[in-house]
């Protein structure tokens, strides 16, 4: 029996900061006829809040270092302000939605990342086994789209900051057992760019071999590295397709085959 297609869409970058662009993106998201999940970041807003409070934001290899003060900010911004604003806009677009953190309904448990070469603080790691897929499937069956903020818990009362790309990939992997999952990373660029200053320099397909070449040459760097690592992990776990591209071209990214962006493959 063919599995039903499920879209797991992650939104980040400048699109979240721009109310006009966010409304366009969410209107397109609402038009996707299949079951769908939205995962969002919100790092730039959290950084702005931290500056106002005199707390320095520290990023290492594209990932945020989260001490106790920063955790309070990201929980308020991610699981509060950004999450509920997105849910409200989806309701306006006639898409029923529910905002979630990993702590809600025990939907995603995390373990605090052990200190190795870098201490990321109150940051968590997750696995597909830590996802409460039964609860998510129940929501999807009611034609409700879950909207995930990048916050989870450790089952001991501690909230943890999670990379939003990682949450999207982990949800995609966990749900690929029951659905034909398509994972889409939407942001403000037209795809993975060979020249970051040239939106026309889209790398239309990236495989494991040329990914290593692009990393070594510096073409792919910073936060794009963990995004692509998550993409390859998702493919290995059974996710059918991973696409990266302009969030405002979401419906073209959802086509089969995709009409824009960068396709990640082996």
Describe the structure.
With 266 residues, this protein is an alpha/beta fold. It has one domain: 3-Layer(aba) Sandwich (Carbamate kinase). Helices cover 38% and strands 21% of the residues. The protein has nine helices and 14 strands. Strands 5-8-2-1-11-13-14-12 form an eight-stranded mixed sheet, with helices on both faces. A two-stranded antiparallel sheet has the order 3-4. Helix 3 crosses helix 4 and helix 6 packs parallel to helix 8. The protein starts with a strand and ends with a strand. The mean pLDDT is 93.
What key phrases describe this protein's structure?
single chain; 266 residues; alpha/beta; Carbamate kinase; eight-stranded mixed sheet; two-stranded antiparallel ribbon; 9 helices; 38% helix
Helicity level, as a percent range? 25-40%
Record field, number of beta strands = 14
What is the average per-residue confidence, as pLDDT, rounded to a whole number? 93
State the CATH topology.
Carbamate kinase
Strand and helix map with partners:
Layout: E1 5-11, H1 14-17, H2 19-31, E2 36-40, H3 43-52, E3 58-60, E4 63-65, H4 68-92, E5 97-100, E6 111-112, E7 124-125, H5 133-141, E8 145-148, E9 151-153, E10 159-161, H6 164-175, E11 180-187, E12 205-206, H7 208-217, H8 224-236, E13 241-246, H9 250-253, E14 262-264
Parallel strand pairs: 1-2, 1-11, 2-8, 5-8, 11-13, 12-14
Antiparallel strand pairs: 3-4, 6-7, 9-10, 13-14
Helix pairs in contact: 3-4, 6-8
């Amino acid at each position: 029996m063919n599995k039903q297609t499920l879209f797991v869409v992650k939104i980040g970058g400048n699109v979240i900061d721009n109310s006009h662009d966010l409304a366009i993106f969410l209107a397109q998201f609402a038009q996707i006829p299949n079951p769908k999940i939205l995962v969002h970041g919100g790092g730039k807003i959290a950084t702005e809040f931290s500056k106002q409070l005199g707390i320095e934001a520290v990023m290492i290899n594209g990932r945020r270092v989260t001490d106790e003060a920063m955790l309070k900010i990201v929980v308020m911004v991610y699981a509060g302000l950004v999450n509920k604003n997105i849910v409200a806009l989806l309701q306006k677009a006639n898409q029923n939605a529910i905002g979630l953190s990993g702590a809600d309904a025990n939907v995603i448990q995390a373990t605090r990342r052990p200190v190795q070469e870098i201490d990321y603080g109150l940051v968590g790691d997750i696995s597909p086994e830590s996802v409460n897929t039964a609860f998510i499937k129940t929501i999807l069956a009611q034609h409700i789209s879950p909207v995930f903020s990048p916050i989870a818990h450790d089952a001991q009362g501690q909230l943890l900051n999670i990379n939003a790309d990682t949450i999207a990939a982990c949800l995609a992997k966990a749900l690929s057992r029951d659905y034909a999952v398509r994972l889409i990373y939407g942001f403000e660029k037209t795809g993975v760019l060979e020249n970051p200053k040239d939106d026309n320099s889209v790398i239309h397909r990236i495989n494991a071999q040329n990914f290593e070449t692009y990393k070594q040459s510096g073409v792919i760097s910073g936060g794009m590295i963990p995004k692509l690592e998550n993409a390859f992990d998702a493919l290995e776990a059974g996710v059918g397709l991973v696409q990266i591209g302009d969030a405002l071209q979401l419906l073209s990214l959802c086509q089969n085959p995709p009409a824009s962006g960068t396709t990640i493959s082996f």
